[in-house]
Task: inverse folding
């Protein structure tokens, strides 16, 4: 079941992109202050569609951040290069000579922190005419479509998430010619590992969603990598089932705002020879929990 209701919108237009998730929002200029009624509808569209898209926006880094701040505190990411003068606006750039991109696997952002990202707001500055799309997948559906036996097993498991493996790989690539990742750094000393329930309850919708991802979840807590790997591999493949997904084609001025608590995304690397420049702002969220556990906060303790 997707999360959409039949209640009409009065202040914005909402055009679903696929059955599972995703909607394009119209009638909003994000560079201007939003009135309360419009903002409330944007918030509802976000929760109902998991990822929302705005076209033809003209957003300075200040305006980008001002819109993001309606949803929470901004995350300063210590790994990504940033826009000059804006330590909380990450640069995601692939040059024409780069053969690798950032984000070409299913993942949710910043799950290596104890309080991971609520959402990410990605703004397109320069895009290839064809290719460079981003896919999104609905983690409520991914969880609900599993067998009862698998759901029950996962409810008892916690995932161990780490930034180290993925970001060290990107930094190592960046040292070689044409591998992308320019400006990425990896430093010890920042919070870079966390344990979260494999199934988390969305704090606003109350629905349970699958919460392991192929960028950062290394294993289940208390199990070895070898023991965890077959189940994680199954789940990482399961996340990408076409019926859970939507796909967005970017044009300059597009903004995507996705809910990392219940959706994953995948940046398709099919545009070698072309430049793609995105600015990303990430909003911090709460500590993940599973409401049906006797002690839902067990992992946070
Ligand atoms: C990301 O993984 O946050 C980047 C997505 C994209 O560049 O499309």
Result:
């Amino acid at each position: 079941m997707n999360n959409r209701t039949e209640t009409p919108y009065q202040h914005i237009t909402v055009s679903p992109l696929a059955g599972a998730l995703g909607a394009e929002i119209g009638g909003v200029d994000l560079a201007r202050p939003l009135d309360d009624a419009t903002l409330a509808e944007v918030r509802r569209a976000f929760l109902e569609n998991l990822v929302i898209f705005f076209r033809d926006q003209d957003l300075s880094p200040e305006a980008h951040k001002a819109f993001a701040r309606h949803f929470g505190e901004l995350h300063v990411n210590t790994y990504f290069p940033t826009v000059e003068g804006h330590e909380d606006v990450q640069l995601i750039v692939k040059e024409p000579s780069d053969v690798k991109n950032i984000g070409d696997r299913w993942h949710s952002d910043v799950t290596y922190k104890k309080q991971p990202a609520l959402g990410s707001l990605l703004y397109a500055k320069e895009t290839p005419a064809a290719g460079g799309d981003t896919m999104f997948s609905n983690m409520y559906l991914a969880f609900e479509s599993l067998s009862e036996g698998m759901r029950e097993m996962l409810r008892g498991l916690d995932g161990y998430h780490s930034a180290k493996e993925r970001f060290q790989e990107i930094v190592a690539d960046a040292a070689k010619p044409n591998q992308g990742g320019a400006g990425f750094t990896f430093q010890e000393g920042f919070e870079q590992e966390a344990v979260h329930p494999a199934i988390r309850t969305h704090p606003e919708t109350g629905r349970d969603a699958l919460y392991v991802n192929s960028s950062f979840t290394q294993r289940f807590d208390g199990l070895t990598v070898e023991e965890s790997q077959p189940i994680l591999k199954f789940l990482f493949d399961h996340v990408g089932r076409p019926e859970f997904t939507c796909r967005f084609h970017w044009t300059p001025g597009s903004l995507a705002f996705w809910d990392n608590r219940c959706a994953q995304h995948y940046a398709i690397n099919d545009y070698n020879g072309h430049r793609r420049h995105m600015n990303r702002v990430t909003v911090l969220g709460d500590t993940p929990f599973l409401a049906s556990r006797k002690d839902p906060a067990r992992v946070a303790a």
